[in-house]
UniProtKB/TrEMBL annotation:
One of its GO terms (molecular function) is peptidase activity. Keywords: Disulfide bond, Hydrolase, Protease, Serine protease, Signal, Zymogen. Residues 227-385 form the Peptidase S1 domain. Pfam families: Pro_Al_protease, Trypsin. This is Serine protease. Residues 135-189 form the Peptidase S1A alpha-lytic prodomain domain.
Length: 395
């Protein structure tokens, strides 16, 4: 689908490589672009609304909810996102992780037996459920860090701390469970701390693609998707281009260049824009749902709903499955990724992940596709902003 160009306030046009509905802010197209034949101005979600009508519709379809249930879920997720750092401070050293419980509609906070009754009561008074577990978040993070120091064979897909299971979960490709190198790695991983082993249908891969039609940005013969606008440019995936590489837009015109890029170890980059291009905190709706403004970057908890936009498969939703996961791509391990149940395909790399109106991260890679399903990881946007000293462009 060819990207539409719409007037927004006094800007001539907007460039979107994201998918349907509201996700990350994207840079504007070259000056002189005109509005489409419809002349439709972008539909913007009011600040007082929990989400655009299109986002609510997408969540209803993805999770089988009524409109009221979708609104209630988004409001509950926003409350859980705001509560999580408060609960962490209250629990102190006894904190063992937290997640959004969609059935209960509230945050669950895990604590060890070290947590006092006063602290537990205070967390409940803040609106969260409390679960007592064996291992603290600090202990689990330390175990994961020790596993990060190991050399993982290709059959090992990823590993992350799972607060719901109170363990480090190591995921292995299903057809590699019996591989001697994989078994040796699992033995070493179990020695690092509490570990359980899970299987995936396939090993993860990045979602870059060769040059094809659609609404991409290009670097050389690689097509990727823009993530979120920052002042001076946009953020995207590091595997899409190296520092200094030039970037062209959907129309072939020069946009700017990669100013910083890291892959593997990380999977983030930022591209400066110029030559008549500029940035706005908007993602267009691809003609299917209203446009969404980006209003911040508060990190959604595990269990929260999340949606992704990209230049290949447009808009898909799912849930946050894990944070701070190490993913073992064929090019090398990438750390501190967030795992989701959202699908993606080649060309979606770098695209926006958003929860409500809060920017979450840029698409890194995954397994599967949007026909049969799969899982996708993203690099958290706040880490990218902090690494390069960037400021997210918000409304």
């Amino acid at each position: 689908m060819r990207r539409t160009r719409l007037k927004h306030v006094c800007l001539a046009a907007l460039l979107t490589l994201g998918g349907l509905g509201g996700t990350g802010a994207l840079p504007a197209a070259a000056a002189g672009d005109t509005a489409p034949a419809s002349g439709r101005a972008p539909e913007i979600t009011p600040a007082s609304a929990p989400a655009s009508a299109g986002l609510l519709s997408a969540l209803r379809e993805r999770f089988g909810l009524t409109e009221d249930e979708a609104k209630a879920r988004l409001e509950a997720e926003a409350a859980a996102t705001a509560l999580e750092p408060k609960a962490r401070r209250t629990a102190g050293a006894a904190y063992a992780g937290s997640w959004f419980d969609a059935d209960a509609g509230r945050l669950t906070v895990a604590v060890t037996a070290r947590a006092s009754q006063t602290a537990r009561a205070a967390i409940r008074a803040q609106g969260a459920e409390v679960r007592v577990v064996e291992h603290s978040a600090q202990a689990l993070d330390a175990a994961k860090s020790r596993i990060d120091g190991l050399s993982a064979p290709p059959g090992v897909a990823s590993w992350h701390v799972d607060p719901t299971a109170n363990t480090v979960v190591v995921t292995v490709a299903r057809d590699k469970r019996a591989d001697n190198d994989v078994r040796r790695f699992l033995t070493q991983a179990r020695a690092a701390g509490p570990v359980t082993v899970d299987t995936a249908a396939a090993a993860p891969a990045t979602f870059a693609a060769g040059t094809v039609g659609g609404d991409p940005y290009y670097t050389g013969n690689v097509r990727c998707s823009i993530g979120f606008s920052v002042y001076g440019g946009f953020v995207t995936a590091g595997h899409c281009g190296r520092a200094g590489a030039g970037v062209s837009g959907w129309d072939g015109s020069y946009v700017g260049a990669f100013q910083g890029s890291s892959f593997p170890d990380n999977d983030y980059a930022w591209v400066s824009v110029g030559s008549g291009w500029w940035t706005v905190p908007v993602v267009l709706g691809w003609g299917t749902v209203p446009d969404q403004l980006v209003r911040g970057s508060a990190e959604a908890p595990v269990g929260a709903s999340i949606c992704r936009s990209g230049s290949t498969t447009h808009w898909h939703c799912g849930t946050v499955l894990a944070r701070n996961e190490t993913v073992n791509y064929s090019q090398g391990a990438v750390h501190q990724l967030t795992k989701t149940s959202v699908c993606a395909e080649p060309g979606d790399s770098g695209g926006s992940f958003i929860s409500g109106d809060q920017a979450q991260g840029v698409t890194s890679g995954g397994w599967g596709n949007c026909s049969g399903g799969g899982e996708t990881w993203f690099q958290p946007v706040n880490e990218i902003l902090n690494r390069y000293g960037l400021t997210l462009h918000t409304y």
